[in-house]
Design goal:
By secondary structure, the chain is α+β, with helices and mostly antiparallel strands. It has 2 domains: about 5-125, N-terminal domain of MutM-like DNA repair proteins (Alpha-Beta Barrel); about 140-260, Orthogonal Bundle (Helicase, Ruva Protein, domain 3), CATH 1.10.8.50. It has 7 helices and 11 strands. It has helices at about 5-20, 40-45, 125, 140-150, 155-160, 170-180, 190-210, and strands at about 25-30, 35, 50-55, 60-65, 70-75, 80-85, 95-100, 105-110, 115-120, 250, 255-260. The strands form 3 sheets. The protein has a 5-stranded mixed β-sheet with strand order 2-9-5-4-3. A 4-stranded antiparallel β-sheet has the order 1-7-8-6, covered by helices on one side. Strand 4 and strand 5 (about 70-75) form a beta hairpin. The longest helix is centred in the C-terminal third of the chain and has 20 residues, at about 190-210. The radius of gyration is 20 Å and the shape is elongated.
Length: about 270
């Protein structure tokens, strides 16, 4: 958390605030937030650069600057906030960037898991990511080939960012339920028709999540509405909205996993 829809929502919120602005000052308040370069070089290099674009790649925020690329991964608890320049810093601010319109971009991260890169070669960070699930170029055939080339349980495979980029726990559980696939199903046993259904389901839940500004289930991410439309995630012992069977929760690859035992039969 945040996953693809939440990061996409944050990126869309950032664009009108930061694109076209110039960074006039930087305040790194927790050194380990910065993955690269060293803090002194970061401050020297980023000041004076203007922001040309802000996009999302998987769960990464990618801001193209006039020289370098600023990449932010929010991990478990990160968020991007904008404040007036004279507003006091908050307890969990890890990086503050002052903009030339007298506003401040704050990377706020209570758990300190988030990371920031400033690099002239963004592929150093992003090159191992799999395809974007909402790209037109990513087809059901692509998904079928990717999942059946492995002999792994489908839930942790879908969470593998090198296989498909951007999926996390919430939307994987929702997509598997919509597709009628048990999270323990072996990926190499999935038939082409099932893969086509999973491809449609992944796209449907991600598009619905983006439309509703993501999922807000606790204090970590705020402002979403998709939590009101969840079918299995976080609904342990509640009735399945399709068949009425109580939703079960198990742990798959150390991740809490929600499913309907009637609608999602295991095939191993």
């Amino acid at each position: 958390m945040p996953e693809l829809p939440e990061v996409e929502t944050i990126v869309r919120r950032m664009r009108p605030e930061i694109v076209g602005r110039t960074i006039t000052a930087a305040d790194l308040r927790w050194a380990r937030t910065l993955a690269t370069p060293e803090p002194a070089l970061f401050n020297k290099n980023i000041i004076g650069q203007s922001v040309e674009s802000v996009n999302r790649r998987a769960k990464y925020i990618v801001a193209q600057l006039s020289v370098d690329t600023l990449i932010i991964h929010l991990r478990m608890s990160g968020d991007i906030l904008f404040r007036e320049i004279d507003a006091p810093a908050e307890k969990h601010d890890r990086l503050l960037l002052t903009l030339d319109d007298e506003k401040t971009l704050a990377f706020n991260d209570m758990r300190k898991f988030g990371r920031v890169w400033l690099t002239p070669v963004p592929d150093d960070v992003l090159s191992k990511l799999g395809p974007e699930p909402l790209d037109d170029a990513f087809t059901a055939d692509d998904l079928f080939e990717r999942i059946t080339s492995h002999k792994r349980q489908i839930k942790p495979l879908l969470l593998d960012q090198s296989v498909i980029a951007g999926l996390g726990n919430i939307y994987t559980d929702e997509a598997l339920h919509l597709a009628g696939l048990h999270p323990l199903t072996k990926s190499d046993k999935i038939k082409r028709k099932q893969a086509e259904g999973l491809w449609r389901s992944i796209r449907k839940v991600l598009e619905a999540g983006i439309e509703r500004n993501g999922t807000s289930i606790d204090w970590i991410y705020r402002g979403g509405q998709y939590q009101d439309y969840l079918h299995v995630y976080g609904r342990t012992d509640e009735p399945c909205l399709k068949c009425g069977t109580p939703i079960q929760k198990i742990f798959v690859g150390q991740r809490g996993t929600h499913f309907c035992p009637k609608c999602q039969k295991v095939a191993i």
